[in-house]
Amino acid sequence: MAKLVFSVLMIVVWWTLHALQMDEEVAMGTVHEAKRAIDRAAHAAAQQLDRNKLEMGVLSLQPESARGAAWDYLRGNLALDAELNPLPGSFLREAADVRAFVVVNEDEVFPYTYRNSQYGYEVTLARPGVVLIVHLEYPRLFGVLAPVEWDLKGSAELVY
Questions:
Q1: pLDDT at residue number 117
Q2: Measured between alpha carbons, how far is 102 from 106 in angstroms, rounded to an integer?
Q3: Do residues 48 and 62 lie in contact, with contact meaning Cβ atoms separated by under 8 Å?
Q4: Nearest alpha-carbon partner for 116 in 135, 88, 139
Q5: DSSP class of 62
Q6: Domains in the chain: how many in total?
Q7: What is the domain extent for residue 112?
């Protein structure tokens, strides 16, 4: 009888550990998918040329268009609504929080090094570009465990 009880307890422990491992793997898949979405959003934003300045031979980004393109890509790739809250079917459960959106334009001296000590991020841009930092939270399957949170960073520069 003792062996039977021990076997049942070990099966429960094994299933619990297996479920925790699967939860961790889903979280890692989420962070990789979200990082790709952040990178795509930064790249889309960095391609929003200011056509008026381009006519004068100046490479510059249009900040409003860049912001709009970044938000469109975030919404599309992370399945978010207009306020960056998750839509039904999204792998996120909490809203995406854009912590930094910086358009580095022609008024800087290139190569330009952007530093953000709060998030431990540094990137050097050779031409106008965009820096994007988004905070995401992944809820754990087990309510006992705290959610996993990431500050995902992306940057891109104008490609011509």
A1: 94
A2: 13
A3: yes
A4: 135
A5: -
A6: 1
A7: 2-157
Q: Can you read off the two tokens belonging to residue 75?
A: 């919404």
In the block, residue with structure tokens 């959610």: 147
Structure tokens at 66: 């860049």
The rounded distance, in Å, linking the Cα atoms of 93 and 27 is: 12
Comparing CA positions, the residue from 126, 102, 101 lying closest to residue 112 is 126
53-92 pLDDT, tens per residue? 888 888 889 999 999 999 999 999 998 999 999 999 887 8
Segments in the chain below pLDDT 70: 142-145
SS3 142: coil
For residue 128, say if its preceding peptide bond is cis, omega within 30 degrees of 0. no
* Residue 38, C-beta contacts closer than 8 angstroms, at least 6 positions apart: 74, 132, 134, 152, 153, 154
For 5, 17, 50, 146, the CA distances from 64, given in Å and listed in that order, are 65, 48, 10, 37
Instruction: Compute CA 116 distance to the chain's CA centroid, rounded to the nearest angstrom.
Output: 16
CB-based contacts of 127: which residues, under 8 Å, 6+ apart? 59, 110, 157, 158, 160
Residue 94's CB is within 10 A of a number of other CB atoms, namely 15
Residue 117 and residue 124 in contact, taking contact as beta carbons nearer than 8 Å: no
